[in-house]
Amino acid sequence: MTSVVRTGAPFGDFVAAAERSGRLVVQPRMGFGDVERMRHGLARTKEADAVTVGTLTLDSYTRIGDHAAAARALAEGVGLNGYPIVARPDDDTVRLLDGVRSEDFPVQVRHGSSRPQDIFRTLTRLGLEATEGGPVSYCLPYSRTPLREAVDCWVEGTEILAESGADGTHPHLESFGGCMLGQLCPPGLLVAISLLEGIFFRQHGVRSLSLSYAQQTHPRQDEEAVLALRRLAREHLPDTQWHVVLYAYMGVYPRTPRGASLLMEQAARTAVRAGAARLIVKTRAEAFRIPTVEENVEALENAARAAARQRALPPSDTASSDSETYAEAKALVEAVLDLDGDVGRSLPEAFDRGLLDVPFCLHPDNRGRTRSYIDGDGRLRWSTTGDLPITNGPTRLPRGGLTADALLRMLHHVERHYDTAA
Amino acid sequence: MFHDEITRPRPISLVSSTVSDSHTWNLIFMQLFLEEMGHEVVNIGSCVPLELFSRKCLEHRPDLVVVSSVNGHGFNDALELARHVRGVPGLGDLLMVVGGKLGVEGTRDVGFTRRLLQEGFDAVFGEDDLVGFRSFVSERGLRAVS
After folding, report:
1. pLDDT at res. B112
2. Which has the closest alpha carbon to A62: A93, A98, A91?
3. Fewer Cβ close by (within 10 Å): the C or N end of chain A?
């Protein structure tokens, strides 16, 4: 009989306590197939000179539900790109977490699955209570799963997690919706999808949430987006514990070490200025390869220092929560909620009608009538809004508007900006 | 548009990823690149299973198929793809090329290129060989605009 460890502090409470004490929680991306390497990564994250939470990222076989392939890889000693929590015996994972996960070090499981039920069953059995994803955000960008099927799977998955709360744990679920496609999705749509997935989780019983937003091309615009997300969360999630998690830039990363550091430090400043409570860091190795544990520790400590420096500054002209991004996100959210009070039904319907439409997303259930661009000031804007219920952009594609070269320049805009500044 | 909306008589290209590759910015780039050459493009997206790939080829009857992959498994996935497609009745003469970051090593593997050509690709391009790709398309008379 597996002895399940239930010593971790509730994830949401831990972040809330750090927020009250004025410290930004920082978190790496990290996953290894090997128990000892994974344990070492968690232990080093815990020891870092920063307020940290641990990350247990699963491998891509587990992500697509091919647990037999993950088990075969383990048996044959083939390297995995993450921890196969379903294929591994529970005892291995208990051993992995024993003495690492603790009151002051909660661990979040990250997976990328559009069909998360097996994963959620396994982690709740192990007393792991924090994970992430979402019916839209883990379907449209990375899978060919039909959106309605992904919603059904996430209804079941979310309820598995919520019901585990009856055992005295405090399930926490983060929406990955603010990170759609990593880059070139205008902030209003990111904020709307993140909030809508949060409402979806709440409707299926999870009472402790985080809402994500990924750093884009313009610091001021990012600040507005985080403020908009917080305001909408206050308005739509009244009886829920929630915080905002900011992701350091997820697109093409600067190649110079200095440029990479500058970009990450900007993310830490944005988090502090706009009131995000947690930051997912990137490392200086990001442009080239999967970072080592030590590179991650360095990034965590740099981010914590940048956040503390920002916190020590006198408050300056913070962006307003009454921005164009707020207005746009609010219009999108309300249009979706108007379709059906049950967000699990209204989300796919909204994508059918093009009320939600992610630019450059090739998933068959995404209409593909919107496009975005980076304006002269570096802000992300709509070049065409298709059928989105917003008015601040042309609705039709200008003929010959976007060239392959222009796309490439946009994809490399942030990299170029920070490498030049370095 | 990034979807199956096509009007003749411009050349039709079908852009696709491989079965294991979930990257899409390369596919969007190739779509725009082909559109600039006057093509109507059907972009079938990432993680395309073999059977869906051949079904879409039979459905759209493209003048050119462009397989693009950047996840490092491209050589293996594309070999399987070529074997499958060339065995499907009606797709024996399909003009089909592959390119991108096809191996996990940075350098181009000449042996793999030869095998991909043997298995039925009409051309193989490295990730920076857009000039070669453009010449190939022009030589085949598949360029509709300047």
Report:
1. 85
2. A93
3. N
ipTM score here? 0.86
- Print the domain residue range for B19: 12-139
> CA of A360 to nearest chain B CA: how many angstroms apart?
7
Name every chain B residue with its beta carbon within 8 A of the beta carbon of A361.
2, 24
The most distant pair of C-alpha atoms in chain B lies apart, rounded to whole Å, by: 40
Cβ–Cβ below 8 Å for B45 and A404? no
Domain total of chain B: 1
CATH class of A11-312: alpha beta
Q: State the pLDDT at residue A324.
A: 94
Cβ A402–B32 below 8 Å, yes or no? yes
A313-317, B49-53, B102-106: least confident range: B102-106
Chain A to chain B, count of Cβ pairs less than 8 Å apart?
Answer: 48
Mean pLDDT across A392-420 = 85
Task: Please report residues of A whose CB lies closer than 8 A to that of B36.
Answer: 403-404
Determine contact, residues A357/A387, Cβ cutoff 8 Å. yes
Whether the per-residue pLDDT at A5 is higher than 70: the answer is: no
* Phi, psi dihedral angles at A278 (to 5 degrees): -140, 150
Q: Do B28 and A362 touch (CB under 8 A)?
A: yes
Please give the helix or strand (H or E) that residue B53 lies within, else none: helix B50-60
Q: Assess if residue B117 is contained within a domain.
A: yes
What per-residue confidence (pLDDT) applies to B6?
A: 46
What is the C-alpha separation between A252 and A31, in angstroms, rounded? Answer: 21
Distance from CA of B93 to the nearest CA of A (A): 27
pTM of the model: 0.93
Domain assignment present for residue B128? The answer is yes
Concatenate the DSSP letters of all residues of A205-251 into one string. T--EEEEEEE--S-HHHHHHHHHHHHHHHHHH-TTSEEEEEEEP--S
CB–CB contact A360 B25 (8 Å): yes
pLDDT at B9: 76
Q: What mean pLDDT is predicted for residues A249-269?
A: 96
Helix-strand-coil split of chain A, %, nearest 5: 45, 10, 40
Mutate to test the interface with A, among B15, B25, B68 (most CBs of A within 10 A): B25
Per-residue pLDDT tens over the stretch A161-190: 999 988 777 899 999 999 999 999 999 999
Q: What is the CATH number of the domain that holds B55?
A: 3.40.50.280
Domain boundaries, chain A: 11-312
pLDDT > 70? residue B8: no
